[in-house]
Amino acid sequence: MLYGVSYYPEQKTKEELEQDLTLIKQSGINTVRMGEFAWSRMEPEEGHFVFGWLDDVVESLGQAGIHTIICTPTACPPAWLVTGHPEILYQDNRGVRRPFGGRRHYCYNNDFYREACVRITQKIAEHYGKTPWVAGFQIDNEPAQEGTGRCTCPVCRKKFSRWLEQKYGTIENFNQRSGAVFWSQEYQSFDQITPPVNSIEPGAQNLINAFYENPLVRLDFERFSSDSQIEFQNSQTAVLRKYTGCPVTTNATGLATNSIDYYKSTEALDCYAFDYYPGLRNARVDSFPYAFARGVKEGAPFWVLEFMSGGGHRLSGSGRLQPNPGALKQAVIQAFAHGAQALLHFQYRTFPYGAEQLNYAIVDMDGIPRRRYYEMKETAELLKKLEPLSGAKFPSEAAILLDYDSHWALRIKPVNDPLFTYLDYGQKLYRSLERIGINADVISCHASWESYKVLLLPAAFILDADIRGRLREYVRQGGILIATFLTGVKNEDNAGCTQPLPASLTDVFGIQVEEVEPVFAENHTSFKLTLPCENGGEKDGEKREWIVPDGMWSELLSGTGKALGVYQEDYKKGCMVISEQQFGKGKACYVGTDMPDEAWQQFLLTVCAPACPASEQVTAPDGVERVMRLLDGRKIFFLFNFTSAPQTIKKCGGYRNYLTKKPAADEEVLERNDFLVLEEMPQ
């Protein structure tokens, strides 16, 4: 595992640099990441390139066995470039140009800016492409972060028109597919179609209140902007490929912070990489981003290029809590357990100046090593011991299917906003599976998923005809499909389907959606959830029943499907809300509302158990995460106690502590913010 820090030698005095490099070498880490904000030092004036200051650091670290990930600095165009070519500046949805003085103040579609980026990327690639101490390259930095992913400048307006023309061919075709006749919005040419006034970017401010635009124009602008970001990225990817065989990637932020389709954006990259800042003070580190990361680029490892390091100040001016002692180490090992091939803390030493001054770091501004530094040092040693486990497989038999079109569409036209969000709901289902001991991957709707025994389809608002057909065949061939409310409501043109819902899949699920509404505090009601007994006692009439409150959304179902959930109150009394149906060799379940976590877990355990039996070995209480992997046919369990008290792990007999090599007792106690790695002993 590549383990280390982000470092910024361009900001250091000679004395600070010497002090930092000495401590970095002594820490035991093996990787640093440098250069993403240093364009003004790499190219202080147009056409004059200077790398000697960075060469010295790369060489000094390399001689100590520490490799470098070199970044292209294109997130921060220097003053001379902006002053000479102000047309490269980013323009937001309000028409406001972003001035020099921050970062990411560029238009990613501007040809002159792309040429400048390609030029400095080529110089970096020529200089460092064959350097033995370089472990990889990062393109730009956090693309589209901080509301910079939806430029509306004249260049982007024109390019958006051409993108639409290429996609639809004729304006008549676009008018028909978009329903432009509504509100007399029919166009005579593609040049009349402008970027939308409204934006779903985090932090964006809409200029005109209550201005409602065509849903397809808005969705297509999201698609176009994502494609444009990918084009910008890949213009640098192509250059780097000519000069190096090292891995090339970029660093994403969150699952959709910047609304780039990561499934598409990583196609030309060697791996998916992202930045992650979880709380480490009395908090569970959510593993959903790791499951998502494993599924972005099938078969490739993932990197975490920026990770939490400490507490104190932060960029936005608010604060982050310091991690509990041991929590930093625990979180890094957790990332390793979930398949991270690289993890780098941001950052090594706190900045004394600039917009990110006083930010959290491994070492404070004075450069004196304290507990975070020594914990990082201990973690580096642990990772060396765990390295033989890095090739262990993830034995997932279930998958959660996600799609950016549905994410974008449900932000453009939200339901039950802000309580319901698409990706958060996928996360909720992942956690329920995790809690009952079922390993699940998180993958694209467009990926290959036919080999999984169970598929979960959360709120698949948009489903194209190809995906609908594949889902139908999947169930017919023996798969178990679990879909939730808001499935198949729209087609790929972001237009509502005129067939009964879920459109084109009613026979698979054996139901039709009769009526829908959001669920608020004032219209909550309850339903009876009926499931067969775990021992199969349903043959004798034995069942388990719960009265469960609904949530988020409510759909009343009719049809031939077996009713597993039936409303008990109000005018909905007696109406089906959860169904199950045999279709071909498989089974399809439709869940027309949300449920509390406990009910979801019971439901999933019952429906999935025949295909994905949960492991009966090594059980963990609430608050302890269990990650199971397979190495040469042996089970490996990673266990992480995120609670504030010691926890007892049961059924450990037949395993041994991987780090101590001692046989485990049947019950093992795991201390607060501690972890345990158990390996199955040969029979």
Structure commentary:
The protein has 683 residues and is α/β, with parallel strands linked by helices. It folds into three domains: 236 residues, Alpha-Beta Barrel (TIM Barrel), CATH 3.20.20; 211 residues, Class I glutamine amidotransferase (GATase) domain (Rossmann fold); 57 residues, Immunoglobulin-like, CATH 2.60.40. It has 17 helices and 28 strands. The strands form six sheets. Strands 5-4-3-2-1-11-8-7-6 form a nine-stranded parallel β-sheet, with helices on one face. Strand 20 and strand 21 form a beta hairpin. Helix 8 packs across helix 13. The longest helix has 29 residues. The protein starts with a strand and ends with a strand. It comes from Eisenbergiella tayi. Belongs to the glycosyl hydrolase 42 family. Keywords: Glycosidase, Hydrolase, Metal-binding, Zinc. InterPro entries: Beta_galactosidase_C, Beta_galactosidase_Trimer, Class_I_gatase-like, GH, Glyco_hydro_42, Glyco_hydro_42_N, Glyco_hydro_b. Pfam families: Glyco_hydro_42, Glyco_hydro_42C, Glyco_hydro_42M.
